[in-house]
Specification:
By secondary structure, the chain is an alpha+beta fold. It has helices spanning 4-20, 36-52, 67-73, 124-129, 152-157, 176-179, 205-218, and strands at 57-63, 79-84, 88-89, 104-113, 131-141, 164-167, 183-188, 191-197, 228-230, 245-250, 253-258. It binds 2-oxoadipic acid and magnesium ion. 2-oxoadipic acid binds at residues 61, 63-64, 69, 73, 106, 108, 139, 141, 143, 148, 155, 160-161, 232-233. Residues 61, 63-64, 69, 73, 106, 108, 139, 141, 143, 148, 155, 160-161, 232-233 line the site of 2-oxoadipic acid (OOG).
Length: 260
């Protein structure tokens, strides 16, 4: 069993590392008892710290929902974290490297509901009836662990490597039949580096929302109307270096930015 002191200590180190843009080694290597339950407690401390510092919780993120992402980091379980207001970046603006330490970019489908949901969905139709927005997004990950070397409890404690995200504007709510096969091309500096389809996440990105709502309700939390859900990276996430120009090309909309 992890002691409360060790759990608080891990939260403290993660917060400090984020603030000071320092990298850490995995806590699972230091604390043999550091398990998923303890990791959720660490994430909860960070959640409360964010609120106490004046941040708004503007949504949640699911992670490791595609095989490509799981293979990339060697963790074979989906995870969830929270999104703070200051992590929302405006599409069309440069992304400032001063905010990040070792960023990676991920093409994702974002979902917003028009109703607050505090219990698991029982049918897909119920979820579909609550959809306000389904559209393209980019997540910018920034793990606090050197070279993204972590195990499942480490990455959960680190709020699932949350860094920042950019929402697109195309709303696919009336094209749900097409969403699973929406294709994505990622280009870095004009070179095509990966492709994928939205179905890579659980077969259907909406299933990621089902999973998130179920997890939140287990923890006595809820997904509020208007909060953003990032459903998980569709492809492996390439690293970024200053000067890179990134294009995430979805049907009908490209999310592009310069990492400056
Ligand atoms: C963990 C976060 C994964 C996703 O979309 O799969 C994630 C990581 O890869 O560092 O956000
Ligand atoms: Mg992600």
């Amino acid at each position: 069993m992890m002691t409360t002191e060790s759990i608080k200590q891990i939260a403290k180190e993660l917060s400090a590392a984020k603030k000071e843009r320092r990298l850490l080694g995995a806590f699972t290597a230091l604390y043999p008892d550091f398990d998923l339950a303890a990791a959720h407690q660490v994430q909860q401390i960070l959640f409360e710290e964010a609120l106490a510092s004046g941040e708004r919780i503007i949504g949640y993120k699911m992670g490791l929902t595609s095989r490509a992402k799981q293979m990339d980091v060697g963790v074979f379980s989906s995870i969830s974290g929270f999104l703070v207001g200051s992590s929302a970046l405006v599409k069309g603006t440069p992304v400032d490297s001063k905010r990040f330490r070792q960023p990676r970019v991920e093409p994702e489908v974002a979902v917003v509901l028009n109703r607050t949901i505090d219990r698991p969905f029982t049918t897909m139709a119920e979820l579909v009836s609550c959809l306000a927005f389904v559209g393209p997004a980019a997540e910018l990950l920034d793990s606090r662990y050197e070279n993204y070397q972590f195990k499942l409890p480490d990455v959960v404690a680190d709020n699932t490597s949350a860094g920042a995200f950019i929402l697109g504007t195309s709303n696919w709510v009336n094209r749900l039949d097409e969403v699973r096969l929406m294709g994505i091309k990622i280009k870095k500096n004009g070179v095509l580096i990966d492709t994928g389809a939205a179905a890579a996440t659980f077969g259907d990105p909406l299933l990621s929302v089902v999973e998130l709502v179920s997890e939140l309700s287990k923890r006595g939390n809820k997904l509020e109307a208007g909060q953003v859900v990032l459903t998980g990276g569709v492809t492996a996430a390439p690293l970024l270096s200053p000067g890179d120009f990134v294009e995430l090309i979805w049907p009908g909309e490209t999310i592009s930015f310069t990492y400056v």
